[in-house]
Every structure is written in structure tokens, then in C-alpha cells.
Amino acid sequence: MKVISILGATGSIGTQALEIVRQFPDRFRVAALTAHTRIELLARQIVEFSPRLAAVSDQDHASRLKALLPADTKVRIVTGEAGYQQAATLPETQMVLGAMVGAAGLLPTLSAIDAGKDIALANKETLVMAGEIVMNRAARRGIKLMPVDSEHSAIFQSMAGHSRDEIRNILLTASGGPFLKTPAADFLNITPEAALRHPNWSMGSKITIDSSTLMNKGLEVIEARWLFDVDFSRIQVVIHPQSIVHSMVTYQDGAVMAQLGIPDMKGAIAYGLSHPERLFLDIPAPDFPGIGTLTFEAPDLSRFPCLALAFQAGEAGGTCPAVLNGANEVAVAAFLEGRLPYVGIHAIISEVLSQHQIDNHPDVDEILAADQWARRTAQTLLRN
Ligand code: NAD
Ligand code: MG
User: Fold this and answer.
1) What is the edge-to-edge ordering of all strands in the sheet holding 53-56?
2) Which pTM does this prediction carry?
3) Atom of ligand 1 at shortest distance to CA of 100?
4) For a FRET experiment, which of 52, 108, 145, 340 has its CA 20 to 30 Å from that of 138?
């Protein structure tokens, strides 16, 4: 029996993780669940999974949650950053699933690592902002850090049985998103509705927009750099519209190992939670004769400049990836609210990065300060 805490239980990853817990009640028990604003869903989850602790953003949401729960529910409700950190560090918790979206995941994940918890990490922004610090602390504490992002799970699986110095490079696959074939001129009129229609994956809104701009792939390049300790020069992005090959690793003899499957995050989530075992899942294998053709192409950086921006910020290092991420979060939210045209997302991030004075060796506080600076600067640019 593995005792887990789920940070971001009400999101796309969180709810799919709970489906796995529901399917394997003898393997997983939930000790803590956290949410931000989706209180009704969290209340239903508490009734079903009986966690000892639940964390929400503030006192208002806590009161609403309390009112929704049957009177005899035995759950402690805590709030805010301190509450999220409590959920991440409960004594009985063995593994923490980091499934919050965005920079909010960084501090709870670091607390969980410092408390010696194993981590299954979906929240890529944590590694983008502070990959070096996170990986060093995880190594020092001797905890297991399992990737949940499907590409990184695929890379991890493709590395089994091999040593790192045998690797030539990593091939990170990307579906290309809904605008893979959209002519450059039409990018000016892209609406949130169109950008939220991902061809292969159903995910939270922020990552869906990131997938459409290829910023998601850029964040994943930085995530891979830290997870697998490879230089940026050895990470290559390959567009693969069918999303069957989840990513690949090339070895020094030219052999390529890949992990394949239908696009279903439950596979990667379950593997993150249960490694080194594989669970019996009701996910069909790809129907290769039915699929017929798998295709690959290079990304078009002129229509998807966010990918190039992420490589540049990653290579610059220091506080730049945190600034890239913070500016992106603000720009994506503004686009979703109709306050910024689609092409403005890249323009805002690029401008914020160009104004940034890099700190080459930041600690966590300096990273958080750079994130806040990036958000303020992006908001100022949005107003003008
Ligand atoms: P989502 O928007 O569906 O859910 C986000 C979760 O985080 C919710 O439970 C929400 O309550 C919580 N949350 C949001 N803002 C918060 C805040 N400020 N403080 C505390 N909690 C907050 O997101 P998602 O699609 O499930 O993605 C979660 C993470 O997993 C992201 O980092 C994403 O990049 C990564 N990821 C997601 C998928 C996917 O298929 N959805 C795939 C790979 C990686
Ligand atoms: Mg991914």
C-alpha cells in the first residue's frame, strides 16, 4: 500500500490520478488532497477518498468546502501556501504527486523533497524555474523523482538498462498542436476557443494553450535538461502529429529507443506512481495497421517562435527560465481572458526576457523574486 498526497487533485492530471487510485484500492491510499478553486469537486473527492488533510487557497474556500461536506467527515482543512506545504509533508505520505499548474507547484514540491517524500512530478514549471536546485536537493535527500509528463516518462522508460554516458541525444516528440498547418498570416486571428481545441490530448487550459504555441515543448526541453542531465545541444524537438511515439533516446551506436502508446495520460501517471511495477490498465495498445503511417517533421520556428525563446532562456540559465515561465503564465491568462491577441503571447515573453537582468546563480528566493518581477513587467506591458 502506497500512501500518496495529490497536489492539484481537481485538475486534469489530479482527477486522472484519482481514477487510478479508485481502480487500485489495495495499492494506493490518499492522505491529502489540494485544490485551488474547484471546491465542489474537491468535496466529492474528500467524501470518496477520505484523506486526512485537504488544502485550499484561502479561508473563503475553506468555509465553502466545510459547508459542502457531510457533518461527520473527518478531514482537517488547511489553507494557503502553508496548507499546501502541510499536504506535501504529512508524516504518513510516501509519495507526492505534483499536479498543480504553474509556478504555484514549486514551494510545495521543494517541501516534499526536503521531507524525504518520493515525487511523481507532472508540474513541469517547477523544473523549468528551479531544475538544478530541485534535482540537487532530490539527490541529496535520496528520494525518487518520477516524471509524469508523457514525453519524460517515455524518455525515462527508454533509458531503462542503459547508462547516461551512452546517450547521444534525446528526441522530444510534439504533436504540433491545432495550428501545425495554419498559415502564418492566420495566426493574427487565432481565438482562445480555437487554441483550446487540442487534436490529441485533453488537458488543463494553460497547458493546452502552451501546446498550441509550442511553449509547452519549450518548457519540456528545459524539464528534460534537468531531469536527465543532458545539455540543451543534445535535446531535439521532433513534430509527430499522431502522438503515438511519446519520445525517444538515441544511443552512441545510432540505436534509437522509444516508448509508444495511444495518447492517454493515465499510462504515464500510473507508471509514475507504481514504478518499478506496471499496473494492469484498460488502455489499448496502438492499432498499428489502423494507424498506418507515423510521420515526423522539424518544428517551424518562424510560426512557433516560443519554442526558440525557451531554448534561449534555457541556455542562458540562471533566472531566465523562471522569467520565461512567469511571463508566459501572465500572457496565456491574458490571451484566455481576451486581453491579448495570440501573437502577443510571444511578443510579451520576448520583451520581458529582453528587459531582464539575469542572476546567474539564484537561490529559491531569488528565483521567486524573478518570477514576480516577470509577472509585474508582463502586466505593465499588457496595460500599454
Ligand atoms: P489543471 O488546470 O487541469 O489543474 C491544475 C490543478 O492545480 C487544479 O487542481 C488546481 O486547483 C490547482 N491549482 C491551480 N492554480 C493553483 C494555485 N495558484 N495554487 C494552488 N493550486 C492551484 O492543470 P493540468 O492540465 O492537470 O496540469 C497540471 C500540471 O501537469 C501542469 O504543470 C501541466 O503542465 C502538467 N501536465 C499536464 C498534462 C495533462 O495532460 N493535463 C500532461 C503533462 C503535464
Ligand atoms: Mg508533455
Assistant:
1) 76-79, 53-56, 28-34, 2-7, 95-98, 118-121, 145-147
2) 0.98
3) 7
4) 52
